[in-house]
Amino acid sequence: MENGAVYSPTTEPHCKEPRRPCGCTRQHLKGWRLPAKVLQPFLSLLAVIFEEIVEDCINCGGLYFFEFTSCTAFLLSLLILCVYCTVACETFGKDKVEKVNFWAMLAIGVIFLLASIVLAATNSAPVSAIIACVFGFLASGAFLAEFAMEYRDSRKQSTKGHSENSGNTQGIAENSPLNK
Q1: What share of the chain is helix, strand, coil (3-state, %, to 5)?
Q2: Residue 30 in this model has a pLDDT that exceeds 60
């Protein structure tokens, strides 16, 4: 017994998950979410590019606001896409990432829409500014559409949770006696 033959490991060693190339995965972006997440930075980048082409402006405040908003929307949407496609989503917790994404899409969409309206109102009619404005409206539509789809999905899930225990019936925990 002194040689330790009696005492052997009782558990198997935990096998590691297979490594993903560069830690990338699409498992968190299924269905319509992957095209939406790719479309948002793409449209935002096009808005930035066409805004940068504008050479002359009479009232530049709207153009500067649109520039800041479109660049910020591009960077934030790219960051959120990277979080969803890497192990960071699991590190932060999927529910927290989805909550941040939900409110970020609303904020980005509303501010981008406002910036596009301001640019359209203060535009001195260069073609590149009009094209930037169009891509701004398309990008804000993509952000707000994702927010609306997520809101609809969350409403469906909450109504499913309420229908499981309709009529205020007590569950098993409420029917069991305390400390017998």
Answers
A1: 70, 0, 30
A2: yes
